[in-house]
Amino acid sequence: MINLQLILNQDFIKKYSLEIGIILCFVLPPIGILWLMFIGWNHLNKAIDLKVPFYFNTTTFFYICLAIAALGASFSEKNGKFILIFAMILGYLGLYLYIKERATFVLFHRFKHIMIAGAVYLIGLGMIVREFPVTNVLFGLLTGTKLFAPSTEAGGRIFGSAYNPNFTCFLLLVTFTFILADLLKRLQDKSIKISKWVYIITLFIVIGIFQTGSRAGVATMLVILFIFVLRAAPKIGLAILAISFLAKDQILEIIPRSKFILESAFVRKEIWETSFQIWKDHPYFGTTSIGFYEAYSHLGSPVVPHAHNILLAFFAEYGTIGGLAFILLSITITFKFCSLFFLNGKKKRLLDFFILSLPVILLTGIFDHPLVSPQTALLTTILVACWDRYTGSLPFVHNSALYLKRFIVKMSYFLEGNTEGQHLTKTDKEKSKYKI
């Protein structure tokens, strides 16, 4: 009986190993990070042994470039600690390949639900820790309730189990987009009733985003809300955009710590200039995320852990190799994003989830670098892998050209005042249709 129970437990862990790792990333972050890393290392080892396929695309090229940069930095700087970053990136790559091969609609929906539950946990725990700070360092490191920030106190900002308010805000924003995408799908399908819990959880997460005190996070949330309205009702979305320009001063007042925006801008400027100098000093392989702190301390304040800009961060931490690879990856994702944005999402099951969630990475990366944390980087790797799996078979170039052709033809008929030819031929219409 005990052996049977043991076998069942082993089968359960093997079947839901990814989901267990994601849950642990919220509850016990160090264990969750190692759990997902082991999944990645194990799968990468199988790919090297040719037991599973190795997918070569811009995303895997990006991870390979980061790994090469980290290894190069370790040798050029003669610092053995940088090998840890090399191993970490190999874990990211392996996890990406694992998801790319196994991702299904069911897996993505489980991922979505765990992220939503994790967001509620982050906010609830953050509010508790704010009132009753954790004093035991070991317990704080194990549960993610130990603050990692330049200041020793959070200043009333919640961070839950993500070590830093900005990392928490990033995870809440990704979850927020999942809920909005689900809400958008329900609004489009009138037969599906919207539960009151959807609104309650949405409001709770919005409150949580404000409670993190992240200015970039709240600004990103407003942009995501605009994209949501634009997808749900384009005319209303454009009207809101116009009103936002007129009421920009009032909008600035709701941004957390808005009184310090100017002061923060000068600090960011100094950090960016110093980060650029670090890249110039380490142009090929960078410093890795471990070496950035030390390199910065030689040029500026010793309390800046990263570049506070995702593009500068990749150039400074992974040199020209990693920076150019990140630009290539960003261009690829942006091209896919633009190709899909104006598609009708009613028959595309996951389209709106990605349309709303992917901008969070770049928008928060303008004034911060949330992916410097393995906790957020691993969860983002899962999201990007699902995106690549979802879009892997789509003929983007061909259909984008057809869409552009349709747009030009419609505009030409409109300008000529010809109402008889406003539509393309049936053949062109059929060519431009594809299902995701």
From TrEMBL:
It comes from the Bacteria. InterPro entries: O-antigen_ligase-rel_domated, WaaL-like. Keywords: Ligase, Membrane, Transmembrane, Transmembrane helix. The lineage of its organism: Bacteria, Bacillati, Bacillota, Bacilli, Bacillales. GO terms for cellular component: membrane. GO terms for molecular function: ligase activity. It is found in: Membrane. Pfam families: Wzy_C (PF04932). This is O-antigen ligase family protein. It comes from Metabacillus arenae. Residues 201-327 form the O-antigen ligase-related domain. It is a multi-pass membrane protein. The chain crosses the membrane at residues 20-42, 54-76, 82-99, 165-184, 196-213, 321-343, 350-367.
